[in-house]
Amino acid sequence: MKILVTGGAGFIGSHVVDKLVKNNHDVVVLDNLLTGNLNNINKNAEFVHGDLLDKDLNLEGIDVVIHHAAQINVRTSIEKPVYDGNINVLGTLNLLEKMREYDVKKIIYASSGGAVYGEPKYLPVDENHPINPLSPYGLSKYCGEEYIKLYNRLYGIEYCILRYANVYGERQDPMGEAGVISIFVDKILNNQQPVIFGDGNQTRDFVYVGDVAKANLMALNWKNEIVNIGTGKEISVNELFNLISTELDYNDNPIYDKPRDGEVRKIYLNIDKAKKLGWSSEYDLKEGIRRTVEWIKNKE
Question: Strand locations in the chain, DSSP E?
Answer without folding.
Answer: 2-6, 26-31, 46-49, 64-67, 106-112, 158-164, 166-168, 195-197, 203-204, 206-208, 225-229, 235-236, 255-257
